[in-house]
Every structure is written in structure tokens, then in C-alpha cells.
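Entry 14. Ran structure prediction on the chain below.
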Amino acid sequence: MKKILILLLLIVGSGTQAQELNWHTDVKEAIALGDKEHKPLLLFFTGSDWCGWCIRLQKEVLKTDEFAKWAADNVILVELDYPRRTPQTPEIKQQNGELQQAFGIQGFPTIYFANATNKEGKVNFQGLGKTGYVAGGPTAWLAVANGILKK
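Output, C-alpha cells:
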């Protein structure tokens, strides 16, 4: 009986989890992949361990099956985190600080869509648009994102 209960919990639990997404933290790797797959970057500026709206956006949109399917078809995911308690390498902190300054990020969450190129060690971004938290779950958020990508 105990085995059946555990099996049922696993089956029910697996149905509610979104497929695992590959969030890149190294922007140069993400740019190379974007060039290879001809996809723009989705740059997610977040305070993952303290920002309430960031956590809400993750829960309501970014961790859903609908978003995962859309993201796999449309963008390269890049997480640029500014945590208060989670340790980061000095390289990631420097990269994220430079990108926060370059994009003029003043609040979290902010999501920028951009095409990027890396030529001779110099990264150039072509901004496509930005958004943040959008009420209404994945359908509403994806409508905004698709509007930005179709411009």
C-alpha cells in the first residue's frame, strides 16, 4: 500500500512540473548558442532570493509547461541574477553588474529581448523590447513577449 501511495504521488507530482529549462548564466555562451540557432536572447534580470515580483513571475509564468514549450521554440534563456544570500562567482557578479548598467536596469524583474553578436571579444546588443511581470499567467505574458518578438 505504501508503494502505491508513493507511486501515485510521483505521478501526480510529475504532471505539475514544467519541463526543465536551460537557463544560461554565461552571456557569451548564450550569444554563441543564439547565433547558432538564430534565436534572440531573453535576458531575465532577477533578484531570485529576495524579489517578491521575481519569485511570482517565476511561479506563475517561467516555470510553466506553456512557457517552457514557447521558450524552446523562440529564445535562448539567460538568467542574470542579483541575489542577496546566494553566492556567485566574481566573474558572474562582474558580468551581471556590467549588463545591469548597460541595459539601465533599475528594477526587478526586468526581461529584455535582444539579438547579440560577439565579434573579436566585443559584445553588441540590439534591443528588441522589454517587459516584466504581467498579470494573467503565461497566456497574458506570452502575448506581450510575442508582440515584442514580432516587431
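Strands lie at 41-46, 76-81, 110-119, 122-131. Will compare against last week's run tomorrow.
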